Amino acid sequence: MTLRARRLIACVLVPLAGMACGRPAERAADTEPSAPRADIALGAELAWGRATEVVHARVPRNATLASLLRAHQVSEELANEIVTAAREVFDPRRLRAEQPYQLRLTVDGLVREFVYKIDADRFLRVVGLGDETAPRFDVQVVPYEKQRALVSLRGRIDREHPSLVSAVTAAGENVLLAMALADVFGGDIDFTNDLQPGDGFDLVFEKTVSEGEFAGYGRIVAAEFRNEDRVLRAYRFEVPGGEAGYYDERGRSLKRFFLRSPLKFEPRISSGFSYRRLHPVLGVTRAHPAIDYRAPVGAPVVSVAAGTVVRAGYSGGAGHMVTVRHPNGYESSYLHLSRYGASIRAGARVSQGQVIGYVGATGVATGPHLDYRLRKNGAWVNPLAEHRKLPPGDPIPAAHLAGFAEARDRAAALFLCTSAAAQRANAI
After folding, report:
1. What is the DSSP string of 250-310?
2. Which distant-in-sequence residues (6+ apart) come within 8 Å of 342 by Cβ?
3. Is the pLDDT of residue 313 over 90?
4. What is the second-level CATH architecture of the domain 38-143?
5. 96-106 mean pLDDT
6. How many CB atoms lie within 10 A of CB 253?
7. What contacts 404, CB < 8 A, 6 or more positions away?
8. What is the CATH architecture of 3-27+147-255+397-426?
9. How many beta carbons lie within 10 A of that of residue 63, not counting itself?
10. Which are the contacts of 88, defined by CB distance < 8 A and separation ≥ 6?
11. What is the DSSP letter of 392?
């Protein structure tokens, strides 16, 4: 499929999947009432009987609210009145450079309305209620209206886009969605080493829009990943009274005891598990009970399973190292780190996928890489081989299989939207 075709699918499917093949787009659970628009103040303009001008601009560097207003010929006294009024709901010191604002004022410098975008969720609105002899202002922090739609996306791994991040980006989305997809299949696919040209994926996910602009991703509802000769499917389902999780078409959990890799993207295995390996620095042959991943300095390293940190410190040739104890007699170790994750210290509890450190080249190392080791009942084991032996997580209880099947079938129908759009794009 061409890059143009992939992008077309992403664009076509936003409205298509928003209707869920005919269903209207869903409004986000946290949707707020529509914010009043700046151009509805016509009645006030007629009542005041003065011509107005409207300025659309962005906050310059090192500006304050007062200096911004004065730059538009607002008197110092009136600017100070507005700052004082605004301070009741918003700290004017939090004005940020490059944020957009709109100012509506009369030709003689009276402020009718000032609107400033605080962030993707809120804006500050100051409305002038009085005249030059008795200036009064209504000041509010108003939430933007948000809408959430279901969106379908198809992507493909090829020589031009060999990683999940590049494939998702080529399809019109960004790295945050790629990371979420990697989390769904992280127990079955090592996204640093398992991907091959010809692999592909479809997914249905929530996308939030605010004021016509992208405002973030919601949940992945369903996903399919085609990796070499296997097809993996994931459906999100929340067992009543429990937490939401991802399950295959038969209701088996995709959550594994261990993640396939402690790194999410891009790195490659540079040295495998071996009982006899020539050490590249010391020049002696000895055991290498680890998997080495070549990765750039600063790449995040995650714990492959939930557990308790038993060591986080410098350890000679291992450099900065973290060791985590897991249930069933397992311990995982991460060597040559450049630094540790937030709150990572001996005794800290960590969850599966939590960042525990960052790739470095501390200790005895020829360059930046992660040395990842796994021990079971005190003996080193090959992490890749051990992962294949572990069973999947708990399946959906029989009492809730009917509810899961209904949710699965609704989500699976959305993939038909993706396939239909892909066929149209391939025909272009």
Report:
1. TS-B--BSS-S-S--SS-EEEE--EEEEE-TTT--EEEE-SEEEE--TT-EEE-SS-EEEE
2. 355
3. yes
4. Roll (3.10)
5. 91
6. 17
7. 235, 237, 247, 251, 396
8. Roll (3.10)
9. 17
10. 139
11. B
